[in-house]
Amino acid sequence: MAVFGYIFLAREKEQLMPAGVQESGLLEYAQSAGLTVDKFITEENVALRSSFQQRREGGGLFRAVQSGDTVIVMRAEWILGSVRDASSLLSVWKKNGVSLFCVNLETNITLAEKRKLLIYEGGSGLVQKLLAALLLCEGSEHDDTIKATEQIQKRKGKYRGGPVPFGWEVNKKCFLVQNPEQQRIIRAIITMREDHWSYRDISEKLKEDFNLQLSHERIRRIFSSSQEKEETEE
Hints:
Blueprint: E1 3-10, H1 19-32, E2 39-46, H2 56-64, E3 70-73, H3 77-80, H4 83-96, E4 99-102, E5 107-108, H5 114-120, H6 125-139, H7 142-156, E6 168-170, E7 176-178, H8 180-194, H9 199-210, H10 216-233
Parallel strand pairs: 1-2, 1-3, 3-4
Antiparallel strand pairs: 4-5, 6-7
Helix pairs in contact: 8-9, 8-10, 9-10
């Protein structure tokens, strides 16, 4: 059972922490948890929002760890990347029996409550810290999102009538813009589908969590549309 310390030298200045400081912090935390770091993995010149599985060092670590192994990182946002990436990462490592300790959260976050942490729970201090970490990741994509939205608007032109797609709304200038609340629901649908929820079960969960009544067929169309948009953008 190996213990890995993941050192992240962020490209973003506000996230930058010297490697020596991280190494000391990881060693201290490991000792407090009764662990000994066997190897340090250093990731350099990578954007905060990049997927951990797609990073050069992170991807190698993701594929190398085995059941019983432990990964320790100073900050959750340095390894989770985004809500969607976090869901995938935590799901795989939970299934494979790999522990992920985040020093700023002071706990192992590959827990049975993973799905709740990302979607349902909202009361505990741990959940708030985790979501705050994920918001930092999403915030770093803000400029790219604005540019992408502007490109969509230019490509589509002004809204000329007809049904408004779920996840969008018409602004005062008659352009289609993202509806934040509905986009959050779309992300929840995608996450649940990735966790193999049926459309009927998703419909019941949306009614429970968002007080939103959507038929399972409508949810299927929303999910299919989101996948088609991703393929088009790629």
